[in-house]
Design goal:
about 350 residues; elongated; alpha+beta
Amino acid sequence: MTPAIRVVDLVKRFGGVTAVDHVSFAVAKGELVSLLGPSGCGKTTTLRCIGGYEPPTSGAVEIGGRIVNDVPVHHRDIGMVFQNYALFPHKSVADNVGFALKMRGVARDERRRRVAEALALVEMPGYEARYPAQLSGGQRQRVALARALIHRPSVLLLDEPLANLDRKLRQSMRVELKLIQEKVGISTLFVTHDQEEALVMSDRVAVMDGGRIHQLAPPSDVYHRPATPFVATFIGETNYLQGRVVTVAAGVATVRTAGDHDVTVPAVDGCVPGRDIAITVRPERIDIARRASAAAPNRVTGTVEFVTYLGASASYRVIVAGGQRLHVTQPLTTDRPPFAEGDTVELSWMPDRGLVVV
């Protein structure tokens, strides 16, 4: 099946700076793919090249199987929602939403009907006569989305549309936005720097840095099976242990880390004795106790240096032998009171809770 969007070996340079460096990926019909990465990683520039707002230096952009490198924005069959929403302040909600239809010469009665449909889709019926200044941030975001969808484009491009909302509203709107996208069934490319946002909303996540895609995979794979050290440290919080492989047997590698801790982890290609590697372990996958079971694998003793109370859970920073600091997150219950700073604790985790990144 022809993908809704295909990017082939895309390069974009600004003078001597390469913003997008040979990027290739595809978005299937009905799929939501996020471009996720830190500021300056090339995600917004990639989106703008797809939308026609920036010409590629080289490579190809296809929409619906058609190369659109030289096609103007208004002929690319896209809907676009900008970070600042780009609503006309002097136009009513109805005129903002129906603007694209007016430019296409759609009759007034048909425009009115489709504006009502679009506003109902984003749960804003009855707001036709209001102006942007009379709306909240979340309402303006919904109006911008209705405007992008009203001409029924084949592709929706979203450039950090939730960035200007407060945290609580952002959490609510990302769910609503995903539900609308699924209801309409539109192929969507979503740019964000918010890791949680990308993990919640996406069918697949493309993690970018330095103008390149480091990993393109479903959210669970990106989180639990990062492909590179950058992905491992950028997505969520993780413990990053460096060490040297001591032995490999029966698919399990023993790695000696700082402080002469021997850590066991599933071996991967490249795990050979004598090689320096890195291991990542998520904080929520480490158990913390006054005293761990004698049979517990990967057991280390440490001292609680800092405690962060998070309501339903607590986060601990623990110093272990060799000066390594490990972060541990533990749910709080009435029968498991939190540890305090200065407590001596034992940390342990199963071998399959760690991951080798080479």
